[in-house]
Structure prediction request, 165 residues.
Amino acid sequence: MKYFAVIAIIVLFYSCDHGLAPPPAVEPGFGGTIYFAKGTWPPQDSLVNVWLFASQVYPLDSVKIFSGLLSNPPTIYIYPALDGNLPFFVDSVSYSFKVPPATYRYIGVLQRFRDEINVRSIRVVGVYSTTDNPPLPIPISVGDFQFVPGININVSFHKLPPQPF
Prediction:
């Protein structure tokens, strides 16, 4: 009877899983690579900032840009930050963009080419989009504890996508 009890305890011990274990430690977001077309970078004096953005709203208009950035919670997120930059004069850059779980309808790269920040000083230079003509933005959904890989964006400063504002 002792052997039966020991065997039963061993079987029970090995048959149990982790039960109410905490969820995996994955921060929600997405990542990929931004590819810059060779020979298309503008002169240094027209590169104030280059950012990656993710917007829950599309199409954007000039009013929605700043309200989306400044609302609480925001509906437009900037990477790496408003006071940061993606590297200049590179062929490509890999990124990992942490964002709250949501559907992001418009993802792309912004160039700020003047010192003042307004809609006349920024332009979209690349979009995560279809290959249609004109290209259409591809939305992505980021769930709780989900990181979406493979969000690659092509940028050509000489061939801009349609501007939303």
Q: What stands out?
A: The mean pLDDT is 87. The radius of gyration is 23 Å. Residues 44-155 form one domain. The first strand starts at residue 29 and ends at 36.
